[in-house]
Design a protein that fits this description.
- The protein has helices at 20-29, 46-59, 72-77, 90-99, 104-117, 138-157; strands at 9-14, 35-39, 63-67, 84-88, 122-127, 160-165, 168-171.
- The protein is α/β, with parallel strands linked by helices.
- A seven-stranded mixed β-sheet has the order 3-2-4-5-1-6-7, sandwiched between helices.
- The protein has a single domain, classed as 3-Layer(aba) Sandwich (Rossmann fold), CATH 3.40.50.
- The two termini are 23 Å apart.
- A hairpin with a 2-residue loop joins strand 6 and strand 7 (168-171).
- The longest helix is centred in the C-terminal third of the chain and has 20 residues, at 138-157.
- The relative contact order is 0.23.
Length: 173
């Protein structure tokens, strides 16, 4: 397999268990660069801990992992220019900010600035939540609106974007 460079920002969208993380990892593996994984998930329960453990096992040992549920900027600042970073995922990062009752617009502004400042290419994984129905729950509606805004902003700034459906990546940009 030839090793190809990534553009500065790549967005990989998809639904839950769509194969988006595996596809994003394949983009990173296609480079010759050292790999950094920015993990935003928190293990709130045993099922989530098992999912985190599975992701670590699937990735293998050749990654530097930065576990940061909120301050992605600090992790991005540590990535050397000759490396590549995978941020998995923007959805969990947003959920963590909602749980912390943060100013979401300010948090999104900060994330986009941190991504632009990163000297290495970054692949961002995010859930596409806009394909389902409208929830009867106010918090779920707030989250869906915020996730839609975040995804639109990430897509606007990205150099390339993909939507993964049933494990099949579709190039959007």
């Amino acid at each position: 397999m030839s090793k190809t460079p990534l553009p500065p920002l790549t967005l990989v969208l998809g639904g839950v268990s769509s194969g988006k993380s595996s596809f994003a990892e394949s983009l990173v593996f296609a480079t010759a660069a050292p790999r950094h994984y920015i993990a935003t998930a928190q293990a709130w329960d045993d099922e989530m801990q098992a999912k985190i453990d599975d992701h670590k096992t699937d990735r293998g040992p050749d990654w530097v992992t930065h576990e940061t549920p909120l301050d992605v900027g600090a992790a991005l600042a540590k990535i050397p220019s000759d490396a590549v970073a995978l941020l998995d995922c923007a959805t969990m990062w947003l959920n963590n900010h909602i749980a912390a009752d943060a100013d979401l617009d300010a948090a999104m502004d900060g994330l986009l600035a941190d991504l632009a400042a990163c000297p290495a290419p970054v692949v961002v994984v995010s859930n596409e939540v806009g394909l389902g129905g409208v929830s009867a729950n106010a918090l779920a509606r707030r989250f869906a609106r915020a996730q839609g805004r975040l995804n639109a902003r990430l897509a606007a700034e990205s150099d390339q974007a993909f939507l993964v459906v049933a494990g099949l990546p579709q190039r959007l940009k």
